[in-house]
Write a structure and sequence with these properties.
Elements (H helix, E strand, L loop, with lengths): L10 H6 L9 H19 L3 H26 L4 H25 L4 H20 L8
Length: about 130
C-alpha cells in the first residue's frame, strides 16, 4: 500500500531530481577548502611546522573527497557510487599512513587538519537546504 498513490521510483533517479535550492556535492569540497584554509592559518600561529602538518592532514582528507565527488557525480549507478566510496576510504587511510610514516609531522596539528577537512561534510550537510521565502 502506498500512501501517495503514485508509482514507486528508484532512489537514484529520485535523487537526481532534487530541488534546485539544494547544494550539490561539490559544495563539500568548497567547505573543506575553506575550513582547511582557516585551520592552516590558525596552526601557523603556533609555528611553521604545525601549519604544514595541518595542511598535510587537511590534504589527506580533502583530496580523496574531491576524487569521490568527481567520481560519484558522473554516474547514477549504485554499484559505482559504492565503489567510489570504498576507494575514497582506502585512499584516505593510505594517505594518512604514508604521511605519518614518511613525514615528520606534528600529530596534533595533523589531526586538527583532518578534523577541519571532515567538518566540511557536516557544514555541507546542515547547509544543504536553504531557507526559501513563502
Amino acid at each position: 500500500m502506498q500512501l501517495n498513490e503514485s508509482k514507486p521510483e528508484p532512489i537514484l533517479r529520485a535523487a537526481k531530481k532534487r530541488p534546485p535550492e539544494r547544494l550539490g556535492p561539490s559544495s563539500i569540497v568548497g567547505y573543506q577548502l575553506l575550513m582547511g584554509l582557516v585551520c592552516c592559518l590558525g596552526s601557523l600561529g603556533f609555528g611553521l611546522h604545525q601549519g604544514v602538518s595541518a595542511l598535510i592532514g587537511w590534504a589527506t582528507a580533502a583530496v580523496p573527497t574531491a576524487y569521490w565527488v568527481w567520481g560519484s557525480s558522473t554516474s547514477l549507478d549504485a554499484a559505482r557510487i559504492l565503489r567510489q566510496g570504498v576507494l575514497k576510504f582506502v585512499f584516505s587511510c593510505s594517505l594518512m599512513v604514508i604521511a605519518i610514516v614518511t613525514l615528520e609531522i606534528d600529530a596534533l596539528a595533523f589531526v586538527v587538519g583532518i578534523v577541519a577537512a571532515q567538518s566540511g561534510h557536516l557544514w555541507a550537510l546542515f547547509g544543504t537546504v536553504r531557507e526559501t521565502e513563502v
